[in-house]
């Protein structure tokens, strides 16, 4: 765990340079706006430890899978979100010496991620090898108001000299993904150009033929006046630059304003690329940097007004939750149902930036409660649009009759993960997608979604489960063999409890949906059933599997087993592992991990979190008490589930401990892996730790329920929440709970199992 970043309620601050942690800081201070993003690389040359990253949403490359052996049905590629053209580049040379913090003497350094207004600020005081001392101040942001653009204000002030300075503002498309399997570059040039104060690089991906044009316009100011120096144009393959030679005066700043635009062929006609780019640059430069920055602050103010969580009395916890919410909002805005949420968002390349089951299991609840319902709905439509590919994926593995296996990892609906135990065995992802449909409909009451989209997905998933189970004469039960659960520290197991339970629930739920839409939309439903070729006996087959599914259990302990044979392992708590061997995935062999009892993330507890009402508090307590001491939490998705369940069980201190780990996972680099990028999808789990854990939010019988407690470390916490047509603000403090109805209609809420009526635009104190 690293704690070099300062605690602040609205900012993340590095108040002295830590080059050994620079890649971590680049991840944490990343920027995005849903359409584009980049890591917090320096604008100028930096030859120290760095991972360059600029990304354009929806643009990917099918990098050829790299494995030691091939198996039938194996994905041919691993999709990668591409490291796109670097638009932030501003090289500075002062009388023959390039500005490079790795080579300079640093007198003072400050870097700040301003989460309230959505920008990255840096200032530093350095001396170059020629003894020229300068101060650099830069501010940059990715515009939320004009979401295909970004802007930089970059100032250089000579401290101990007057002289000359060379500026090279560039766009570099000649880049490579760090995670390229064969060190291949994924972009070809279409065109580069530089003229007047603009330049662009137009590139096209190999194989997938995505096209992106990245353009810049540069303005230079001294003494508040625009400098009309003629740029020198530098172009070469995949590179264009505007170079300026300026005279500088001691203690007088020279400011470079750089405006940039990323346009993708996903959103624009390539025939009009250059005209569209020119018009976009004209639009944002007419506003100017200061107005764009004001609009950025207003856009973020609107977001914070709906989804902020205000904590009084614990600045580390306050910074943690705001950081998580900030990164979620930077990654996905819900405007485009072709886009989804990658585990690293715009902060790094690990996991390829593709879509995982994390979206359905963790992210959708955040967007349901904090954004218009269309945002979450678009995430479901994303999967519905890829149903044909999911059916193809199942067919590749030998399934038929319209069975669908959604991919563990995807960009376009095809499976593209490059580890066999994930590709073939981690089939619980199917259940998470079905659960998300139920979660959305229950929360929004949008039952029409079941007819228009949900049924198609659910029947195809049910058909997969029907074929994936088999009857065991020995057990006289249906079993599921050769799977991997969410706990990836156990592979190729039989009867993973979570997977079996999720499959049985899916088969039961599709029957409920059949009844619901038959009742609510009889004519349209019959047509839908015909289109899906529903057979008379299919629902009966599903019900038979539900009634006879096998769930491994230890009767002596009164717990469900992770899978068959789990108790054959040596059972020893995590606290017996020496601290110098943690995380075990960085110190132990894979063979040793697989044979151990240690759990990467919850399996049984994940199921109990999803289906809490199916189990008594005593059952949850027994399973929690057995599995929590065995869990190493080396998946970012693990702590939040434990936090929520601990809250339900009244283990308030433990719930808070897990919340802190989830909230500060990247800020403090708990798992020694933040340099690869932040854990974006698990950040929604941090939000859930407070709302579903501390506040006890649930939906029961079409009503919003809360069962809040106040962590003893806090004086109060406050949040807003949307539920159907209701809009509420909840405050939990040391005297009770205050609920404000922000809507123009009366509503009812259940708090600690007691109903409370709240008139329109009024407040009750409980």
TrEMBL record:
UniProt-listed Pfam families: Glyco_hydro_65C (PF03633), Glyco_hydro_65m (PF03632), Glyco_hydro_65N (PF03636)
Domain Glycoside hydrolase family 65 central catalytic: 322-688
Domain Glycoside hydrolase family 65 C-terminal: residue ranges: 699-756
Keywords: Hydrolase
Coiled coil: none
SUPFAM superfamilies according to UniProt: Galactose mutarotase-like, Six-hairpin glycosidases
UniProt keyword Zinc, yes or no: no
Keyword Hydrolase: yes
A Gene Ontology molecular function term of the record: hydrolase activity
Protein name: Family 65 glycosyl hydrolase domain-containing protein
């Amino acid at each position: 765990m690293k704690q070099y970043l300062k605690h602040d309620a609205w900012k993340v601050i590095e108040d002295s340079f830590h080059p050994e942690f620079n890649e971590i800081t680049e991840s944490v201070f990343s920027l995005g706006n849903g359409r584009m993003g980049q890591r917090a690389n320096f604008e100028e040359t930096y030859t120290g430890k760095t991972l360059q990253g600029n990304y354009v949403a929806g643009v990917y490359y099918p990098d050829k899978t790299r494995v030691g052996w091939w198996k039938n049905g194996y994905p041919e590629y691993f999709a990668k979100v591409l490291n796109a053209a670097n638009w932030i580049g501003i090289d500075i040379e002062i009388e023959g010496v390039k500005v490079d913090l790795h080579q300079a003497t640093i007198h003072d350094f400050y870097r700040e991620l301003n989460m309230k207004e959505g920008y990255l600020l840096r200032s530093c005081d350095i001396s170059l090898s020629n003894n020229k001392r300068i101060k650099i101040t830069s501010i940059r942001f990715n515009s939320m108001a004009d979401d295909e653009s970004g802007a930089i204000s970059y100032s250089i002030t000579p401290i101990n000299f007057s002289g000359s300075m060379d500026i090279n503002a560039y766009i570099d498309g000649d880049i490579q993904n760090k995670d390229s399997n064969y060190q291949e570059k994924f972009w070809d040039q279409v065109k580069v150009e530089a003229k007047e104060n603009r330049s662009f690089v137009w590139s096209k991906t190999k194989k997938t033929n995505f096209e992106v044009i990245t353009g810049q316009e540069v303005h230079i100011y001294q003494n508040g006046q625009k400098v009309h120096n003629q740029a020198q144009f530098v172009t070469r393959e995949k590179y264009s630059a505007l170079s300026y030679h300026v005279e500088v005066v001691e203690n007088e700043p020279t400011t470079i304003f750089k405006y940039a635009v990323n346009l993708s062929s996903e959103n624009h006609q390539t025939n009009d690329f250059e005209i569209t780019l020119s018009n976009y640059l004209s639009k944002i430069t007419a506003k100017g940097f200061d107005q764009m920055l004001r609009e950025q602050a207003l856009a973020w103010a609107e977001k914070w007004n709906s989804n902020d969580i205000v904590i009084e009395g614990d600045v580390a916890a306050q910074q943690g939750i705001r950081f998580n919410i900030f990164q979620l909002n930077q990654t996905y805005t819900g405007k485009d149902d072709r886009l989804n949420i990658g585990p690293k968002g715009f902060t790094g390349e690990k996991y390829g930036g593709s879509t995982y089951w994390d979206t359905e299991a963790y992210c959708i609840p955040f967007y349901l409660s904090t954004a218009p319902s269309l945002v979450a709905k678009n995430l479901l439509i994303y999967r519905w649009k890829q149903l044909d590919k999911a059916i193809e994926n199942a067919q590749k593995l030998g399934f038929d009759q319209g069975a669908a296996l959604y991919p563990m990892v995807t960009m376009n609906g095809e499976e593209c993960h490059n580890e066999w135990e994930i590709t073939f065995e981690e089939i619980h992802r199917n259940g998470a997608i079905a659960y998300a449909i139920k979660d959305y409909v229950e929360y929004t009451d949008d039952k029409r979604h079941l007819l228009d989209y949900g049924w198609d997905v659910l029947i195809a998933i049910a058909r997969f489960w029907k074929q994936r189970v088999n009857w065991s004469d020995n057990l006289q039960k249906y079993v599921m063999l050769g799977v991997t659960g969410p706990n990836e520290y156990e592979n190729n197991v039989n009867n993973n409890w979570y997977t079996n339970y999720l499959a049985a629930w899916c088969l039961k739920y599709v029957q409920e949906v059949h009844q619901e839409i038959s009742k609510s939309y009889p004519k349209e439903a019959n047509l839908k059933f015909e289109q899906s070729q529903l057979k008379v006996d299919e629902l009966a087959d599903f019900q038979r599997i539900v009634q006879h599914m096998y769930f491994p259990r230890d009767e002596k302990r009164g717990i469900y087993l992770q899978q068959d044979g789990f108790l054959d392992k040596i059972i020893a708590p995590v606290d017996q592992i020496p601290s110098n061997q943690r995380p075990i995935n960085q110190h132990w062999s894979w063979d040793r991990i697989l044979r151990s009892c240690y759990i990467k993330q919850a399996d049984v507890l994940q199921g109990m979190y999803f289906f809490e009402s199916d189990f008594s508090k005593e059952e949850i307590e027994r399973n929690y008490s057995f599995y929590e001491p065995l869990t190493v939490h080396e998946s970012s998705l693990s702590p939040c589930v434990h936090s929520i369940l601990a809250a339900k069980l009244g283990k308030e201190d433990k719930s808070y401990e897990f919340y802190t780990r989830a909230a500060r996972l990247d800020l403090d680099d708990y798992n020694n892996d933040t340099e690869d990028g932040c854990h974006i999808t698990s950040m929604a789990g941090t939000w859930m730790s407070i709302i579903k854990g501390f506040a006890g939010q649930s939906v029961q019988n079409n009503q919003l329920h809360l069962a809040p407690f106040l962590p003893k470390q806090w004086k109060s916490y406050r949040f807003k929440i949307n539920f159907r047509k209701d809009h509420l603000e909840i405050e939990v403090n040391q005297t009770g709970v205050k609920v404000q109805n922000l809507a123009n209609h009366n509503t009812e809420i259940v708090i600690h199992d007691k109903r409370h009526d709240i008139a329109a635009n009024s407040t009750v104190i409980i």
